[in-house]
Amino acid sequence: MTWLALPADAQTAAGDTTAGAIAQVIRAQIVPHDYTTLASETAARVDRIAFRAGQHFQKGDKLVVFDCVAQHAQSARAHAVLTAAQKTYAVNKRLFDMRSLGGLELDVSAAEIEKAKADVAIAEALESKCVVDAPFSGVVVEQKAREFQYLAPGQPLLDIVNDKALELEFIVPSSWLRWLKPGYAFSVAIDETGKTCRAHVELLGGRVDPVSQSIKVTAAIDGDTQGLLPGMSGRVLVTPP
Predict the structure, then answer these.
(1) Quick one: which of 80, 156, 67, 87 has its CA closest to 120?
(2) Domains held by the chain: number
């Protein structure tokens, strides 16, 4: 990371009113707070991918749907077995009340119900993997799978980001820790848009890099982030006290 001293006119533009202060130009990058790569959790064929790269979605939207005929059949079978176990227990309970059945047989039929319930839970869990819901609102960055493609568990499907909750990341000299604290306000000029945004320090890195004697800073962008995209970069103008 390079730190550059600004000339007097640049200091004035940056809002520097302290005589003799030297503003520093720090390169920063816009990053999303929420981002992830969604992966397949089941072995099945992709039936439908609802959103393409660049399309926005809302939390809870169905992003990917798998063709899960076998999983649906297993779930139906598990429910049928549970129904049969419950009916068997009901009959055995009446026989037990009439003293025509022993307590052991009744307990076994009750255990069969619990076993069937566990099988239903397993089948429903497998069935739930047939639809990939959006964990947050955002936009698809990259599509890594195609419709009608057969996937194994763990294979990537989509890269998604929350393009509304954006942050800034940049590196500063570790000596700035004497005065740079969470809440410190500053401006950042975005290269791609030519606009200047206000921001404030939110988090300081957990360790100092021993080689470069620098530390990572995460900052929150104040106000509307309309027009900003993850990956954009800019110049943070900071005047050390």
Answers:
(1) 80
(2) 3
